[in-house]
Design goal:
About 35% of the residues lie in helices and about 30% in strands. By secondary structure, the chain is of the alpha/beta class. It has a single domain, classed as Ribonuclease H-like superfamily/Ribonuclease H (Nucleotidyltransferase, domain 5, 2-Layer Sandwich). Strands 1-4-3-2-5-6 form a six-stranded mixed beta sheet.
């Protein structure tokens, strides 16, 4: 993860995206951390192995929550284009997939350790940088 100078106590925004080619197939994550004004704090990408797209979305969220915790933010707004993950994290959807349950629990535990976390769904077009990072990591697998 490329990072800037950490500043504690600020409101931060986390953008994450998981991608899988083949579903299941090779998967990767993209993570972007920014200040409220949009200034980039950190970004990173990671190959995740073989999994479904929803599993990759959760893995990206977990990576992002771990990364953002280092900055000791006062509040975190999470943006993802995965309606399923956002609605599960907000308690609007149940987690029925047994493979997603441990990922949901891990993400929930990490979110509970952070102050004032909000999960919001955004269209893919607004999640462009995290999407690009995930796809770069997938392209590097070739």
């Amino acid at each position: 993860m490329e990072t800037g100078q950490p500043e504690t106590g600020q409101r931060l925004t986390l953008w994450t995206d998981g991608a899988s080619r083949g579903n299941p197939g090779p998967a990767a994550a993209g993570v972007v951390i920014a200040r409220e004004d949009g200034t980039l704090v950190a970004r990173g990408r990671k190959a995740l192995g073989h999994m479904t797209n929803n599993q990759a979305e959760y893995r990206a969220l977990i990576l992002g929550l771990k990364a953002i915790a280092r900055y000791e933010p006062s509040a975190v707004t999470v943006h993802m284009d995965s309606e399923l993950v956002i609605n599960q994290m907000n308690g609007q959807y149940q987690v029925r997939d047994g493979a997603l349950r441990p990922l949901f629990e891990a993400a929930s535990a990490l979110a509970a350790e952070l102050p004032n976390v909000r999960f919001t769904h955004v269209p893919r077009a607004l999640n462009r940088l995290a999407d690009e990072l995930a796809n770069q990591a997938l392209n590097e697998l070739k």
